[in-house]
């Protein structure tokens, strides 16, 4: 299957990160700590960045939060973390940016929701103020329209126009148009105020998969701004993962999207980093980017009544992901490696030969030996009680010999 060419949009620089303009799709995430709690927020930003988040958004919803932003940036810098920080502003952003210039300066990007910057006559002046601050501090802006907080003035206008038609469109169709129009009109207004196209990112996020696809197809056909993709309020667990994957994969296969976030509801006490891992795995399984070696493993059947191969696949996957923060700089290219952990002789040898390195474990009733293949050739046969430990060692040696500084590329 061929991968669609990405649509070329204006490139936006956010710190050292490039979004759009042919740059790789960027993974971003958002903290769920109270921004006022500087230590907790810094800790979670580092966790997200370590997992691979290339942009991290934080909530800036109060004076106390705005006061904390500069200290958060300072502590991150002291710890050697330059990951760009995005300020998530809603109802009072214009006031906070005016009152706390250190906050305005410390952030790498502002996020503005046109539906939440003011009501009635106050909307345009407040939106203008925020854009003017972006111009003053040379910051890019994401104009993010959400279905749940759509600018009602735009929707009302389109509904009035729709009622006057001979054949009015249904409400969902009008709402889709209102979401796209709100983003485009706000971007045009920002340009009028003085914000350059290469300082603008647009998003139009809702929670319905098919509606989201339709909206972004329309938006992409009508502009060349960089686009942020995300299915908002995606949900928890497999539901959130599947719905986000379905929506974003369709769009990216059509060349739409420059940066993505997976808006999962985390389980109580669960790590926030799951949304980063899911975003990476969508991009990697589709062939757009590589982040960590992929483990190919079979689902199991009556031939694999032991759970040995399942545990080994899980251990190897965890081992590879845990090592990536170090390997990323030590072993360039290792993120594209494939490791096969197979459970029986049916597909085991074939899949192992197709991977960079693979192991075919014995299924029920098979000889208690596990052949290992490297680049299609059998190099060793493991047996006994320490197959897992020995295979991990084989993987490590393969990485050192193929991706290390002394390896021939």
TrEMBL record:
InterPro entries listed in its UniProt record: Dihydropteroate_synth-like_sf (IPR011005), IspG_bac (IPR016425), IspG_bac-typ (IPR004588), IspG_C (IPR058579), IspG_TIM (IPR058578), NO2/SO3_Rdtase_4Fe4S_sf (IPR045854)
Pfam family, any one: GcpE
Protein family according to the UniProt entry: Belongs to the IspG family.
Pathway: Isoprenoid biosynthesis; isopentenyl diphosphate biosynthesis via DXP pathway; isopentenyl diphosphate from 1-deoxy-D-xylulose 5-phosphate: step 5/6
TM region positions: none
HAMAP family xrefs: IspG
Cofactor: binding comment: Binds 1 [4Fe-4S] cluster.
Residues involved in [4Fe-4S] cluster binding: 298, 301, 344, 351
Domain IspG C-terminal: start-end pairs: 295-396
Residues in coiled coil: none
Cofactor list: [4Fe-4S] cluster
Gene Ontology molecular function: 4 iron, 4 sulfur cluster binding; 4-hydroxy-3-methylbut-2-en-1-yl diphosphate synthase activity (ferredoxin); 4-hydroxy-3-methylbut-2-enyl-diphosphate synthase activity (flavodoxin); iron ion binding
Biological processes, Gene Ontology terms: isopentenyl diphosphate biosynthetic process, methylerythritol 4-phosphate pathway; terpenoid biosynthetic process
The IspG TIM-barrel domain, residue ranges: 9-279
UniProt KW keywords: 4Fe-4S, Iron, Iron-sulfur, Isoprene biosynthesis, Metal-binding, Oxidoreductase
Enzyme Commission code: 1.17.7.3
Protein name according to UniProt: 4-hydroxy-3-methylbut-2-en-1-yl diphosphate synthase (flavodoxin)
Domain of life: Bacteria
Known catalytic reactions: (2E)-4-hydroxy-3-methylbut-2-enyl diphosphate + oxidized [flavodoxin] + H2O + 2 H(+) = 2-C-methyl-D-erythritol 2,4-cyclic diphosphate + reduced [flavodoxin]
Function as written in the Swiss-Prot or TrEMBL entry: Converts 2C-methyl-D-erythritol 2,4-cyclodiphosphate (ME-2,4cPP) into 1-hydroxy-2-methyl-2-(E)-butenyl 4-diphosphate.
